[in-house]
Here is the input.
Amino acid sequence: FVLGITLAKEAYDDFKRYRRDKEMNDSEYKVLQEDGEFLKRKSSQLQVGDIIQINHGDRIPADLILLYTSEKTGAVFIKTDQLDGETDWKLRKALNYTQEAYITKNIKQADAWIIAQPPHKDIYNFEGALCIGESKQREGISLENTLWQNTVLTSG
Here is the structure.
């Protein structure tokens, strides 16, 4: 009898998880196109390298690097309670180069690329670099420049 109840509860939890995942995968986000316009795309269709627009209150669809925010300081906060149970907001900062470059030109046209370490289990450690064109200038990317999947943007 106890085993039957436990199995039923597990099945119900799996079903709720399935519905939540489907809802998340069907959520639409604006993806920046080459011409500088935004086009809506389901989160299940997002690809590595896409530049997406996240608004206040939106759930983050994937692990992201923060390139630009409407805040002049380049800072935003994310709520991570769904990820780690902590209710305090975490400060995140946009990369300096892209925060400044976005104002003057389409960020898709920038001669820059990101090098990042492969995925690993330690969510409190991240290293990468933004490499900028022919100048070979590099800007370090750290944990404070990341937005984590399934967290919520609370400002910016």
User: Anything to note?
Assistant: The mean pLDDT is 87. The CA atoms of residues 31 and 149 lie 16 Å apart. The radius of gyration is 18 Å.
